Amino acid sequence: MKVRVRYFALFREQAGCASESVDFPGGTAMELFQMMTAKHPSLSAQAAALVAVNDEMSAWEEPINEDDEVLFFPPVAGG
Amino acid sequence: MKFSVSDTAIDVSAARIAVADKHCGALAVFEGWIRDHNEGQEVERLEYEVYRPVAEKEGARIIDEALARFSISHALCIHREGLLELGDCAVIVCVSAAHRGAAFDACRYIIDQTKTRLPIWKKEHYVTGISEWVNCEQCAAAGHAHGDQRHD
Lengths: 79, 152
Prior knowledge:
The structure holds 2 protein chains of 2 kinds. Chain A is of the alpha+beta class. Chain A contains 2 helices and 5 strands. In chain A, strands 2-1-5-3-4 form a 5-stranded mixed β-sheet. Chain B has one domain: Aldehyde Oxidoreductase, domain 3 (Alpha-Beta Complex). Chain B has 4 helices and 9 strands. In chain B, the strands form 2 sheets. In chain B, strands 3, 4, 6, 8 and 9 form a 5-stranded antiparallel β-sheet that branches. In chain B, strand 8 and strand 9 form a beta hairpin. Chain B is elongated, with a radius of gyration of 16 Å. Chain B starts with a strand and ends in a 10-residue tail after the last helix. The chains are: A alpha+beta, B alpha+beta. Chains A and B meet through helix 1 and strand 4 of A and strand 4, helix 2, helix 3, strand 8 and helix 4 of B.
């Protein structure tokens, strides 16, 4: 299924792009992230990273659906 | 607007006035400023990246949570984005309440949650010419937890 992936801050620099369309066989947000780390070896998983789907905060174990826009947030540092 | 992101200087006086209320005897304010050092490095300036669609929604939720959890009257938070210089105000939280205890508690809750939940990132530009994203991996390397006061 087709999904849209977006990267922010450190992840954008590691992936070398801000967004891309991906053909995902299905699974969780974590499985999608792992698939992207295989494609972009510089992209590294970090314990405090967050994920949002269609502009709502989500969880790594949530399943991804067709046409979802998945946002990968590296550890945040506001304030 | 209880939570907002600004790409221009924060008007501190306007923020205080926005929570003014004749029923309130306390105003607690937290301002986060750009300081000249972090993790042993001399900082020259700092750059904030904010993903507004999620930050604004989640920020409004944090304010609503504070209003529900604490005996306060009004609360707001404004966070900067873009390039900031030393001494600039990066974030302000203003809380008004009948009494100071609740105002202090709610103010701390809002800034703590803002730091850990909102999609906001900062890139530090050091005097050496190098720049780096500040993130939790550095926290781990330095041996302290995310949310540690060294990040204030």
